[in-house]
Amino acid sequence: MVQLVGNDFAFGVLEGTYRQDGEKLEITASQRGTGPSRQIEYLVNRIDDSHMTLTLLGRSEDFELNGAAPETATIASLTKGSPPKPSRDAGQVEPEGSTETWKEDQSATTCLSNMKQLGTAMSLYVQDYDGVMAIANTWSDALMPYTKTRETMSCPEVQKSGSEGGFAMDASLSMITVSTIATAADTVLFFETATIGLNVSDTQTSLIGRARHEDGIHFTYADGHTGTKK
User: Fold this and answer.
1) Which of 62, 87, 152, 220 is the one with CA 20 to 30 A from 140?
2) Entry pTM
């Protein structure tokens, strides 16, 4: 939950200020009580009085609004949720399979979003630990304070079975200094694994052979961006 008061906000271990200018929401954040500030700019799409979307680098996340809208100088909160499904006109028939497709798209989007957040969490961790990445076999524990919720650590398809995880860290990056990675944009940091549970790590030997989502297998790279391979 993000608590917004005036132009200040607090979210987990992060705190800072925000400023909205039209469709742009500019956030300046740092880890509570320590660390340098980072400035992030989102595009805001206000769906209605109870829903909004924040978009960063082409990736969107949907939120349900509880209380006043964030552009007002009053207390408000954002809870990550799903956008409302479009209403249909009377007599309009929903295409066959559209509900299933919508659910699959949501699952794939959430999975990729979680992996993106893990990349961001590792970046914040690295800032706090002199540019060194977490120990591979305890990476989930190390990054937990930097993530929004525990659910971030799991693929939604794995959660459906009542389990946790589905993501693994490449063990070859354990405790490595980020500045020594020659091609961070091409170096896999996290990948979808067949080994269920948290703190999973190996040199991609447990990479899933069959994608859980129709768009392919998801990866997070050492520079923080995510990608998909069929």
Assistant:
1) 62
2) 0.58
Do 184 and 177 touch, CB atoms closer than 8 A? no
Cβ count near 190 (within 10 Å):
26
Q: How many other C-beta atoms can be found within 10 angstroms of the C-beta atom of residue 188?
A: 18
Q: How many CB atoms lie within 10 A of CB 93?
A: 7
Tokens of 6: 């005036």
Secondary structure class of 214 (helix, strand, coil)? coil
Give the C-alpha separation, 54 to 72, whole Å.
Answer: 17
pLDDT tens for 156-196 read 999 999 999 999 999 999 999 999 999 999 999 999 999 99
The structure tokens listed for 205 are: 């030997």
For every residue of 8-56, DSSP letters joined together read: EEEETTEEEEEEEETTEEEEEEEETTSS--EEEEEEEEEEETTEEEEEE
| Structure confidence by residue, pLDDT tens digits, 114-151 | 999 999 999 999 999 999 999 999 999 999 999 978 99
Measured distance CA(71)–CA(185) in Å, rounded: 35
User: 52 forms bridges with which residues in the sheet?
Assistant: 46, 63
Q: What is the Rg, in whole angstroms, of the alpha carbon atoms belonging to the chain?
A: 19
Q: What's the rounded Cα separation, in Å, for the pair 77 and 97? A: 34
